[in-house]
Write a structure and sequence with these properties.
The chain is an alpha/beta fold. It has 2 domains: 31-219, MutS, DNA mismatch repair protein, Chain A, domain 3 (Orthogonal Bundle), CATH 1.10.1420; 225-443, Rossmann fold, CATH 3.40.50. It is built from 17 helices and 12 strands. The protein has helices at 7-12, 24-28, 34-45, 51-67, 75-85, 101-108, 113-143, 148-162, 165-168, 178-191, 193-219, 271-286, 320-336, 354-369, 383-392, 426-432, 435-439; strands spanning 225-227, 234-239, 250-254, 260-265, 295-299, 303-307, 341-346, 375-380, 396-401, 403-406, 409-412, 417-418. The strands form 3 sheets. The protein has a 6-stranded mixed β-sheet, with helices on both faces. The protein has a 4-stranded mixed β-sheet with strand order 1-5-2-3. Strands 10-11 form a two-stranded antiparallel sheet. Helix 7 packs across helix 8, helix 8 packs antiparallel against helix 11 (193-219) and helix 14 packs parallel to helix 15. The chain is elongated and about 90 Å long.
Length: 448
């Protein structure tokens, strides 16, 4: 079963972002090549859902982080190789019969565009293959006990199939004769085209490992440990939002006995940021990537769905409340498919009146609590709903983000505490901004 999510979740967590807005993807994208960036984006879109696969990727990136390995290839050479391999028309293949005075003359004046692309591509591939061989020799001992050792063995087999021993021994590729170039053109561009592409794919994946490992070192991120799905536990220690400056970390342990996290707190106390932090960390963990936290262990999920910044559906004429209802319905269908999911709802039914929101929050959260194979994080301003759920459900973990008052000024700690808070400081903030005073000002009155 593949890991499932949707556009709403990707946007809520700002995983890939929009033009002009920094995203989580931007933090990790330090790739040197277009091929590496494409692989990284694909991995961001398709998280893993198997504990072994997640831990193997994580251990590989940890290896690159420990060894502080740099990317040993020149992007310009990779670009030349890609252009060359993209010339798949066999009519452009060099032959010994073309080695005539006219071609020699055209080479001399650099007028033969195809030949220059072919020549540069061959030289680039020879250099790349030599660099791959050197890299394997450099790391094969230290990598042998890691999952990356398997990838090294696979690329070594590709090199052996191409039989590059003569190319590795070539010390002056820039001085190859035309007949030699023609032979290599057939060997590299046609006979072994797919194998050369496979080696380039290895290099681009290597680029991703180096890039993500550098992020772990730069930001001091940690590598989560993936556990089997049937344990249904997640431990977040010191988890924080990677895009928030000077973010405060929080710790929470989720088990089947406390699989519903019920979060309360005043406006601006940090509820949405905290929930996004959990969602981002869990999503990144399923990529096998390092996360912004002090420590993390998690049972693998089948998917993650969040509802944090749900837009109105004006094109369909639906109200915000109805958009919320449809979102809950979508999640309910996913839950009905017996999947192990991680679900986040920020303020259930904020688009309706307080009475309906109160009743809806109790009903939906109570239904969530019956799904002990899934994990839920639900926030609300309606503390009365929490008081009812406290009596009805034994597996809800009630936590809140407090507000301290410094005279008339709210101060937010952003540190999670157990329980339900009655903090409500909306009117204090309104009064501090002198809104009523501005409305009542003589300047805003019509003089008869």
């Amino acid at each position: 079963m593949s890991f499932k999510t949707d556009k709403q979740t990707l946007e809520d967590l700002n995983l890939l972002g929009k033009p002009g807005k920094k995203s989580v993807f931007d933090i990790y994208n330090r790739t040197n090549t277009y091929g590496g960036a494409n692989i990284l984006e694909h991995q961001f879109l398709y998280p893993l859902s198997n504990a072994e696969a997640i831990n193997n990727r994580s251990q590989t990136i940890q290896y690159f982080s420990r060894e502080k390995l740099a990317f040993p290839f020149k992007p310009a050479q990779l670009d030349s190789a890609e252009v060359y391999l993209g010339m798949t028309d066999k009519r452009t293949m060099l032959s010994h019969e073309d080695n005539n005075l006219g071609r020699k003359f055209s080479q001399l004046i650099a007028a033969d565009g195809d030949y220059k692309l072919i020549y540069n591509g061959i030289i680039a591939i020879i250099t790349i293959l030599q660099d791959v061989n050197d890299f394997i020799e450099k790391v094969k001992s230290s990598a042998s006990a890691t999952p990356f050792g398997t990838e090294l063995e696979e690329v070594k087999e590709l090199l052996a199939e191409i039989d590059i021993s003569a190319l590795i021994a070539e010390k002056n590729p820039n001085k190859l004769s035309y007949p030699k170039i023609a032979d290599l053109d057939k060997l590299l561009r046609f006979t072994n085209h797919s194998k050369i592409k496979g080696i380039l794919a290895f290099i681009y994946q290597l680029d991703v490992y180096v890039s993500v490992a550098a992020v772990a070192l730069t930001h001091n991120y940690v590598f989560p440990k993936a556990l089997n799905k049937d344990q249904h536990i997640i431990t977040f220690a010191g988890v924080y939002h990677p895009l928030v400056k000077n973010a405060i970390g929080n710790t929470i342990h989720i088990t089947p006995q406390s699989n519903v996290v019920f979060l309360t707190g005043a406006n601006m106390a940090g509820k949405s940021t905290f929930m996004k932090s959990l969602g981002i960390a869990l999503y990144l963990a399923h990529l096998g990537f390092p996360v912004p936290a002090e420590k993390m262990e998690f049972s693998v999920r089948d998917g993650i769905y969040t509802t944090i910044n749900l837009p109105d559906d004006l094109s369909s004429g639906n109200s915000h409340f109805y958009a919320e209802v449809l979102r809950v319905k979508k999640v309910a269908k996913e839950l009905g498919a017996n999947k192990n999911l991680f679900i986040i709802f920020d303020e259930l039914f904020r688009g309706t009146n307080v009475k309906d929101a109160y009743e809806g929050t109790i009903a939906i959260t109570e239904a969530f609590a019956e799904k002990n194979n899934c994990i839920f994080v639900v926030s609300t301003h309606i503390i009365e709903a929490g008081e009812v759920l406290l009596e009805r459900c034994a597996n809800i973990n009630f936590v809140y983000l407090p507000t301290r008052m410094d005279l008339n000024k709210p101060v937010y700690t952003y540190k999670l505490e157990p329980g339900i808070t009655a903090d409500r400081h909306g009117m204090i903030i309104i009064n501090n901004e002198r809104i009523l005073e501005i409305i009542s000002s003589r300047k805003n009155k019509i003089v008869p």
